[in-house]
Amino acid sequence: MSLKMVLWRAFPKNRHRRLFVGFVAAVVVFGLVVKLLSQGLDKAAHRFNDSDLNRDNFEAEFDSEEELFLDHFISKDEQNAKMEEELTALALSQVGNLPNRNFILKGRSGKFSSCGNFPDLFRLEFSNLHWQVQRIGNLTFYLYRAYVDKRPSKGTAGPLIRILAMVDEPNNLLNVHPVCQFWYQYDNKRPTIVPVHQKLQVWFTKWSKKGKYTAYQLTCSTPESKGIQKVPPISVSLVGHACDNATNNLGIQLVNDIGDSDFEEADPIDIGGSVANKKKLRFGVCVKGLDFLHNDQSYRLIEWIELLLLLGVQKIFFYEFSVHPNVKNVLDYYKKLGKVDVTPLTLPGTLPNEPGLTHLFLSNMGHSTNKRKNEVIPYNDCLYRNLNQFDWIGLLDTDEVIIPKNGNTWEDLIIEIDEQLSNQHNATRDMPITSYCFRNIYFFDSIPPWEKEIADPVPAHLHMMKHIYRAGNYTPPKKFVKCIHSTAHTLLLHNHFPLKCIDGPCNIHQVDVDIAQMQHYRQTCVRDLKNCDDYENSLVPDSTIWKYKDALTTRVNKAISHIRHLE
Fold it and tell me: Which EC numbers does the record give (predicted)?
């Protein structure tokens, strides 16, 4: 009898037959599961017995694998958090004028009891990345940076906060009375309000009233100097009235005190005759915005940097609009050595900032006033970022160098001048020298036939060393000069001389050409100089720079060998 017939007789009802079949199927499945588990356990026991692993080892191995499994996910989260933190830090650092990351991202929301909102990151208004914008009345302020100035000054009891800005309607600034809102790390209730007590134009109106924007320095006393706060503020906002809502929040640039500098001493290269001095003077050089979009100046830049290092300059501060890839490689090389700092730069407001348009704008003489008015921003930024890092700051273009006639370094030069002045008796000697300024002399790019034979032994990539014929005439005194400025006394800088000093007029010393000169390597004279033919047709030999030739050749060749992708 078939199984089907047996089931039919035993369970005449369909419902009973279905229940029985389901029960049998469940028993079969259960049996298979038990068998599989038994086989698995036997194999596991056999494996552990063969490898002499006891239960403790098994549990330890299981726990370890579990921890690794969990660590994998934890590390991923940590990696993501770290990456997010690094990207945030990078984005904020590219702006260059914000408070620290934790402070600006706090986002203190809500209205204070009597004042405006804390301007967190997403309440700020930016212009061309590196400028923050504040509208006060009919004026628009393009704010670049804020700095603490601890230098002693008459009428002030403590540190000052200086703000650099470009303003679109400078003639109306006299009728505006902005205030500083100071923000603190541990005071979330309201800003501390201090009025702007000094508004200085970084320009002489008599030069030109043209130009879309004009640079200003705005100064507020710090609240701690007034006894209001015991700690310095983290940031400052410039507004029209005490409790206005700001669209700017400038991190206050702190500068190291004297003695805290992490810069190395000037290169100890002995080229003979350097004057020994117990206290080494510290020299920095500031360079306005580089605009070498298509011009490969890499070899000339290497020669120029290495010569400044031989002269005792410890660090060079470049500002950059756009540069040729080879020039970037050169700058990157010296950045890694700690000899160069590069700060990206843009123009404020509606001025062009696409690299090609910026280049056309800066090279167009029709916009020369706009160009020159913008140049004072990086120069003064460089001064205030380095107030306590250097004793002296020089402003130079990359085709200019101040060469001592007698000594070999700028320190030798300062010592020689001071010794000369100490033997003179005049009223200005009682005042500290605020700037040493040097006469301009042209070394033109074209090499006269009689010079080629003399310059042949010099490697072709050493432009300054090959050009040893200069104009017979210096440019007029106080015209086209370049200076080295005292960081202890200078308040405002222009390309060619100081505009203002602390507590009185600047004491500028015009250095005699028998002591030093500012060598200017150009294709021709600057356009502002009349009678250029008189300079180009009166060439005389001047190989003063050759005292650096051997040391400079070695250093330049070494640098070239280390800089990759220099074609």
Answer: 2.4.1.-
- Dig out the tokens for 422 from the structure: 């100490």
Residue 425: HSE in the Cβ half-sphere, 13 Å Cα cutoff = 0
User: What DSSP designation does 115 have?
Assistant: S
Question: What pLDDT does residue 172 have?
Answer: 75
- Let me know the angle formed at the C-alpha of 539 by 512 and 308, rounded to the nearest 5 degrees: 55
Instruction: Examine the pLDDT at 453 and tell me if it is beyond 70.
Output: no
**Residue 35 within a domain:** no
Please, which residues bridge with residue 522 across strands? 444
Q: Are residues 127 and 216 in the same domain?
A: yes
pLDDT tens digits along 219-264: 999 876 655 666 788 999 999 999 999 999 999 987 654 443 333 4
- Say if pTM beats, i.e. exceeds, 0.70: yes
Distance CA 235, CA 100 (A): 9
What residue numbers bound the domain in which 420 lies?
A: 283-562
How many CB atoms are closer than 10 A to CB 372?
A: 16
Phi/psi of residue 333, nearest 5 degrees: -60, -50
* 44 compared with 442, residue with greater pLDDT: 442
Locate 235 and state its tokens. Answer: 């940031």
Q: How many helices (H) and strands (E) does the chain have?
A: 13, 24
Rg over alpha carbons for the chain, rounded to the nearest Å, is 36
Q: Are residues 129 and 82 in the same domain?
A: no
| Phi/psi at 516 (5° precision) | -165, 165
Name the residue type at position 175. Answer: N
Tens digit of each residue's pLDDT (9 = 90 or more) over 56-114: 443 444 344 444 444 455 666 777 777 777 777 777 778 889 988 777 776 554 445 46
Contact in structure between 218 and 167 (CB atoms under 8 Å): no
Please give the Cα distance from 148 to 90 (Å, whole number): 24
Q: Which pLDDT score, from 0 to 100, does residue 69 have?
A: 42
In this structure, is residue 271 part of a structural domain?
no
Q: For strand 235-239 and strand 250-253, is the pairing parallel, antiparallel, or unpaired?
A: antiparallel
